[in-house]
Amino acid sequence: MTAKPLGTALSLLFLALPGVLGVPTISCRNEEGAAVDWFVFYKLPKRQGKDGGETGLGYLYMDPSTRSWRRSEKLMNTNRSALGWTLQQLYEAYPSKSNNTAYVMYNDGIPKSSNYSRKYGHTKGLLLWNRVQGFWLIHSIPGFPPIPEEGYDYPSTGRWNGQNGICITFKYSQYEAIDSQLLVSNPNIYSCSIPATFHQELVHIPQLCSKSSSLKVPGRQLTTLQSAQGQNFLHFAKSDSFLDDIFVAWMAQQLKTHLLAETWRRKRQELPSNCSLAYHVYNIKAIKTARQSYFSSYQDHAKWCVSRKGTRNRWTCIGDLNRSPYQAFRSGGFICTQNRHIYQAFQKLVLYYEDCN
C-alpha cells in the first residue's frame, strides 16, 4: 500500500468531518454571526413614533440565550442582522456551486415581481443544508429573500406592515420529514439547487424544484421535528384539498388549546373568532411592543398564534396562512413549539383580542 502524504490525509479529514477542526457548519446565526439552534424575529411596521419601527426596518429578536424579546440595534436590510448573517451562508457559498450543499427558496410573491401565484402554496421560506445539517427559515415577507446571484437585501415593499419568522437548525436526519411536509404545502420555488447526492433520501424536493408533477398529495400531514440541539417542534402542513380554516378545524383541536391568532386582516376578507368546536380560536386585534407602543392587526402581515392564558397546553405556532375564507383553498403550514420562553414572548405581545360575541 502506498502511503498518502500528510497534507493529503489532512485535506481528506477536513472534507470528511465538516463542522469540526474549524470548518463552519450551516446553521441559523445570531446578530454576532454565531451559530444558534433557533431564533425568532418580529419586524415592526413602518409608522410614526419615537419607540422605533418608524423606518419599517426595526425588529424584535430572540434566541435560546436571550429568552425574551430584545429590540435589535440592527436593521432588517443590513447583512449584520440575524437574517443577514444567516442567509450570507448561501450568498457566500453560491459561487462555488458545491455538490455537497443544497438550497431551496420559495415564496408565493417572488422577488421583484408584482404577480402573486395562487397555483402554489401561500408559503414563504428558505432551506439550506448539507449532509450534516442545515436550517429552515419560515417567514411572512413577500418578495424575500433575493436570489443568490444578487446577495442579501430587504425589499422596500416589506417595510410597511409587521412581519415575522422563525429560523431552526436541523440535523440532516430531519430533512426527509421536511421533504414530505413540503410536498403537502406545495411551495412556489423560485431558486434552488439539489445535487444528486440528496435525491435518494429527499424524493419530493427535487420534483418541486423542477416543477414536475408528483404522486398523490395527502390533504394534510402532521410531523414531529427536532432541532439540532433537541428542541421539539410540531409541523402542520395542509394541501389545497383540505378546504377549511387550519386554525379552527385542525390546529386548535389537535393541540387541545384555545388559540389567539394574529394574521393579516383585510376588511371583508377575514374570518371572525370561532367558538363552534371544543377548542376556540380568537382573532388578535392589537399588538403591544412596549409599555406605550402598539399597532393594529391591520398593520400586521405576520402569521402566528399562541395559546390563550390559563389554558393547560401552552403552544406557539409560526407559519404561512391567514384567517381568511380564501386561504381555506390554499396550501401552507405552521411550525409549533411548547418552548416556554417563546410562549411567554408572544403572550406579552397580545394587547387585546376579539371574543366570539
Automatic annotation (TrEMBL):
Molecular function terms, GO-annotated: deoxyribonuclease II activity
GO terms for biological process, alphabetical: apoptotic DNA fragmentation
Assigned EC number: 3.1.22.1
Protein role: Hydrolyzes DNA under acidic conditions. Does not require divalent cations for activity. Participates in the degradation of nuclear DNA during lens cell differentiation.
Record-stated family: Belongs to the DNase II family.
Signal sequence segment: 1-22
Single GO cellular component term: lysosome
Enzyme class of the recorded protein, top EC level: hydrolase
Pfam family, one: DNase_II
Keywords per UniProt: Endonuclease, Glycoprotein, Hydrolase, Lysosome, Nuclease, Signal
InterPro entries noted in UniProt: DNase_II (IPR004947)
Name of the protein described by the UniProt record: Deoxyribonuclease-2-beta
Entry superkingdom: Eukaryota
Catalyzed chemical reaction(s): Endonucleolytic cleavage to nucleoside 3'-phosphates and 3'-phosphooligonucleotide end-products
Compartments reported by the entry: Lysosome
Record flagged with keyword Nuclease: yes
